[in-house]
Amino acid sequence: MTFRLRAVRALVLLAGFYLMGLVLLSAMAALDWLLVTRLFTARVAWFEGMVLTVTALLAAAILRGMLAFLRAGRLGPVPHAVAVAPQDQPELWEQVRGAADVTGERPPDELYLVAEVNAGVAEKSRLLGLLPGRRRMLLGLPLLAGLTVPQLRAVLAHEFGHYGNLDTRLGGVTMRGREAVLHTVEVFREGSTRLHYAIGTLYVGYARMFLRTSQSVARQQELAADQMAARHAGREATAAALRILPVLAAAHTHYLETYAAMGGRLGALPPVGEVHGGFQRLLAARTGERLAALSAGHRPPRPHQYDSHPPTAERIALIEKLPADDRADESADERAALTLLHDRDRVFTALEARTLPQEAARLRRMSWDELVMARAVADAEDWSRPLRVAVARALRSSAQGADGAVTVRRDATAAGVASDQLPGLEEILDAFDRGLLWMAVADRMPKPHQAARLIGPSARNFIRPKVFDGLAGMVHLRLAEAGHATPDVAWSGQPGLVLPEVWEKGMDDALDAAVADMPDTAPLRALLVGPHRVSA
Fold first, then answer.
1. Other beta carbons within 10 Å of 48
2. ∠ CA 258-382-425, rounded to 5°
3. Each residue of 26-55: pLDDT tens digit?
């Protein structure tokens, strides 16, 4: 579809939205005029006043949606990004300008680095997209960290393909119309009257038609941009970039959840610049297979019915069907695109300052090793506390029962119990040796309501992993306090503690014996007094 036809269709869709609003406003104005001039009587003044109020609210909702057009589609500020000038990052700008030259487009006026695995372009079009305007490009630092330089060229050529197809200029019309329609739908959803619902239904129907129609060519635009990328950056580089994008997205999500947020519950942050900068360490430590494993087993999100991007597999298949190009083989250039940046630490620090909330300035900074150790200790305390509380309650109940006193309620909470008042590892093992594990302790371990009715082997099998984790947590705490456990950031695996070899080999078996149906604490006690003794 030509630019002219797309422009006409976008304008017609937008005009239809305003025409529907004008018709509804006219109908409500006519109704109000009839009520005031022809039908107004003192007897039903309250009813007429209610109708006037409702129509006024409806008219306000429609006008708000129509005025949303004036605010949409502008190039506003980008608060969560770092502006990059040519003199600051000449090598990156050289790649951007090179992609602009080979695609026959003018380079962007603004270039921003963001904290996403993404790239995008926008244009402040004039006269509803009929005239070109100021251009903006966004590049994600995580994207640069995961792409090679040839793959980055393919991404840049794809984005300039949108400029070449005039998609960005039409975005002013299409995006403004879409935002106006959706804004109006949201306003009517907030209404509580039946008229709000009825008119809102009209806008929902129009919104679906608008999105379905406007998105029908959006996929064609993406495929056309892919073709331009393959033509100017090479078929292999373009297909490789598309393959790596979902892997990078999964790896970045894993990094944010596992590493960047590691100190969240501790009120701490990684070293300055490492909130985003640590992602490059994870990528450097993992092979392609290990990165792909992060997304394995996770079903990709179901694409939205109005998604503008075709499935990645379809895009790659179409690129691979293209004839082999005569471009020079750049597969040997495995240099990460992030190496194009000068003073990367400063860039990561600047992006961090723009993306973290203001409250983050008050958080303490810790090295990665300190974060891993502190988080491991906190996690171990969490694992062990339910077991320690259950054993404390069981011991107290047993002692009071022996004295003839009333036993402690099983559902009593121990939120106010201090950690130093709870039993230690040896006391817990003594309680297990006395036969209290399955007679009293297990029944006092927290469990969901659905599991409260379990009895016998089913109850034991349900609670056994929790007891195992509780004992493991106490062992980790003891080893950490004794200085025998060391932190391991494990960029290629899972952060945690490295235990002495004798504990790594024998701890699981010893814990299994301690939580068996007939508890045997001897193996665990032997480890506690062995070469790396950690007894209190």
1. 16
2. 130
3. 988 888 888 777 766 666 677 777 778 878
Q: What is the mean pLDDT of the chain?
A: 82
Contact indicator for 86, 340 with CB cutoff of 8 Å: no
What does DSSP assign to residue 336?
B
- From the list 387, 490, 477, the residue with the least C-alpha distance to 437 is 387
**Contact (CB, 8 A) for 266 and 375:** yes
Q: What is the pLDDT of residues 458-471, one digit of tens each?
A: 888 999 999 999 99
Q: Which residues pair with 123 in a beta bridge?
A: 135
Distances (CA, A) of 125 to 96, 172, 217, 508: 21, 6, 19, 65
**β-strand 110-114 against 131-140: which pairing, if any?**
parallel
CA–CA separation, 247 and 279 (whole Å): 13
Q: What is the pLDDT of residues 253-286, one digit of tens each?
A: 999 999 999 999 999 999 999 999 999 999 999 8
Written as one letter, the residue type at 454 is L
Residues whose CB falls within 8 Å of the CB of residue 446, separated by 6 or more in sequence, listed in order = 386, 466
Measured CA to CA in angstroms, residue 75 lies from 72, 109, 137, 170 at distances of: 9, 12, 11, 14
Question: How does residue 208 score in pLDDT terms, banded at 50, 70 and 90?
Answer: confident
Let me know if 430 is exposed, middle or buried by CB neighbors in 10 A (0-12, 13-18, 19+): middle
**498, containing H or E segment:** strand 496-498
pLDDT category of residue 156 using cuts at 50, 70 and 90: very high
This prediction's pTM: 0.78
* 410, 443 Cβ separation under 8 angstroms: yes
Nearest to 146 by CA among 187, 109, 116: 116
The terminus-to-terminus CA distance of the chain in angstroms comes to 78
- The CA distance from 138 to 128, in Å, is 22
d(CA 273, CA 349): 4
Of 403, 489, 391, which is closest to residue 441 (Cα–Cα)?
391
Dump pLDDT digits (tens) for 412-424. 344 445 555 789 9
Long-range contact pairs involving 52-60 (C-beta distance under 8 Å, separation at least 24) = 54/193, 54/195, 55/28, 55/31, 55/195, 57/191, 57/193, 57/196, 58/24, 58/28, 58/191, 58/195, 58/196, 58/199, 59/25, 59/28, 59/29
Alpha helices, H only, 359-448: 368-402, 425-433, 436
CA proximity to 503, closest of 478, 534, 467, 527: 527
Interval 52-82: pLDDT, tens: 887 887 787 777 767 765 555 566 788 999 9
Helix (H, G, I), strand (E, B) or coil at 137: strand
Q: For the chain, what's the residue count?
A: 536
